[in-house]
Amino acid sequence: MKFNLIKYLNEYQHQIISTKHWNLGEWWVFCFVSYSSRRISKLLAILNISYLQLMKTFLVFSLFLSFSIISFSQTLNLPERSIGAKSGSEIVAYINSMSLTDRENAIYSEVISGNVPDFMRNMVQITDVQTINTQTYTIFYFVIPDYLALGNDSDYFLCPMTPLLAQRIANYTDCSLTTRKMVDDIWSAASVKLSPSPISPSAEMVTVPVFSQHNTTVWGQRSAVLTSHPLGELVAGDKKDVVISTMIYGYPSPGRVVIYGWHQSNGVPIQQLYNGHEETYADYSHGIRLVQNTVYVNDSISSVQEILSSPTYHVLLSDEGVISIPTYPVVVPEPQKPTSFCVLQDTDSSLIINISHNSDNEGYVAQYGIDGINFPNTISSISNNFTISDLASNIAYYVKTASYIDNDTSEWSEVLAATTLENSTTILIVNGFDRATTGNTYNFIRQHGEAILANFYGFSSATNEAIISGLAELSNYNIVDYILGEESSVNETFSNTEQSILADFLDNGGKLFVSGAEIAWDLDHLGSASDKSFFNNYLKSSYVYDAPNNVSANYYQISPISSSFFSDISTFYIDNGTQGTYNVKYPDIVIALNGAEEIMEFSGLTDNPTAVAFSGLFPNGTQEGKLVYFGFPFETVYPESTRFEIMAKTLSYFEYSVYTQDIEASCKVQVFPNPNTGEFFVKYENIENELLEILDISGRVIFSSANIINEELIRFTDFSKGVYFLNIISKDAKITRKIIVQ
Predict the structure, then answer these.
(1) Domain 425-657 annotated CATH 3.40.50.880
(2) Which CATH class is domain 334-420?
(3) pTM of the predicted model as reported, rounded to 2 decimal places
(4) Rounded to whole angstroms, how far apart are CA atoms 287 and 263?
(5) Beta strands in 75-119 (DSSP E)
(6) DSSP characters over 403-429
(7) What b/e string do you get for 458-478 counting C-beta neighbours within 10 Å, with b at 16 or more?
(8) Cα 643-648-649 angle, rounded to 5 deg
(9) Any residues with CB less than 8 A from the CB of 369 and at least 6 apart, and which?
(10) pLDDT of 720-729, one tens digit each?
(11) So what's the architecture of 662-741 in CATH?
(12) What is the pLDDT of residues 285-320, one digit of tens each?
């Protein structure tokens, strides 16, 4: 007897999906038999391999395809049901008060997350024999054992839905809906034939309570025969089928749901083929039977769609003739780039990614690394809340996200980050720089995060959309660092909602560090009365000029005001477009109001202050809050050492200890030469070295030693070109240096 590898792996594809322990060969065959570019793309992303690598395995595994067929059962193409998934009765309560759109989105999310009973995953073979032009054809295909349900084996909900949702689920699972002929064949093959239980027609028959009522009735019938016919045997007679038909696009108008079946015990269906309802209609009697797309005809493999559209072979699955469009008209939405999300510190080896869920999305992908530029690691999830684990401790990880639907993946999001420190963090970085302006690389959290980490504090981060939506709450943090770059009146620096959230944060003792070149221009110069009030009373400033001396792209040197807490910082610069960020042409000139002090000004000019600070009660304050506001973007400050020092002074002003910054300054850790070819010296002073470690760009520790001698030569002949990070860790501090191998 010959062996058919395709059908063999179809039996075990659910097991393969659930364990996620595959070799490339298993993946090639699995993807081949699935007829799904969506799955191929998704699984390649998970494995982080290329199509070329995958297809190389064809030469090996194609040898097996010469074997012929042994029949194995098939499994429904869904992930494992999670432990905390809702039961059928919980689903009913969950969707009971939803609109039709929200209800169907919720049902779709439950299905693609794997919340279907275990017994429904093992599909049942249906066999039919037809004679076509004097030749005998045997066809067999696989169907789920009952109508599609949500929940678990002991508490499931046979879930009515519109044909549009049913088709979308069929597409996702690589299935089809039934035809009238298939419904008849399934009823004939069923070992459990239940008697139909109609409910008197009324306006309530399209509501969830009536869906649930009928579900209870059907469960009573099914549970009565469980001893002799356990779950997983083929059931018929409990619902009408939503079917594929020539009548979907026909009379009385396009866009119809076509129903058929509900066979009585004598085999006569209650419902003849009917298309009197629109495609958005579903009542308690409608059931969804999924049929695996792959079908087998004699010794050949085909698909439901190919058979139904064939002038010759359609009779194998259709008694209506050719069905040239064997699907309902589903328009799959484009996946949208995540805008509302946050990256949160979890433990010293894990981070949490939380994304505001769009019910159209099937899942999410995150890529991460440790420099904010390269993202060598990929993780995917059907959940919008997931964890990245097995990370190195005491560093910052930078993350970007995307969503996917079918075989399409959205654009990548802006970059966020969080740290893996042992101590819990009370600092949140918020990225509100969304404006598509020249030089915006959407990853300026790097400069902010590095400055915080250089002062030995951890942080989490969120987009400003996540603040607006409530996904991340400022009240959970002591300090908020708000990045506004060159955000301006086109995009709004602070919306009314953000203003309200920030005012509440400051009124309740929060500490806000905010920087951006257009905040005063947007809020005080062009803003509404409420914008001006927020700017004057909460950012404690008044707009003067749109640029130093009211001349753009001319002044880039800034000096601390001698009376401020920044007084001992040297004069520094902001980027003119040559220092790796962007050209700050229009930094705001502002003066302090309402008890604030001016803390920085443009060098060589009079009356051109550009930063203020305030400590005290805000207008509706109950606790002392604090503010540091820059009229220029913090990320554009250079040199880097000054940027780190400015952050240290800001944290100190917020009454955070900066003793570790003093350790950093006194240690004078050096790596030289840098860049190098893989050989370098490490020199350090005034530090008791407990551990030296080197990490690659993915955060993996590739070298570790507790016995490095000062100015010892470190040689790595197997270093590839790229960026690495060296940590010197003592009992008091961790000092990080970037190493570039060329």
Answers:
(1) yes
(2) mainly beta
(3) 0.69
(4) 13
(5) none
(6) EEETTEE------EEEE--SSPP-EEE
(7) bbbbbbbbbbbeebbebeebb
(8) 100
(9) 375, 376, 377, 397, 398, 697, 698, 699
(10) 777 788 877 7
(11) Sandwich (2.60)
(12) 999 999 999 999 998 999 999 999 999 999 999 999
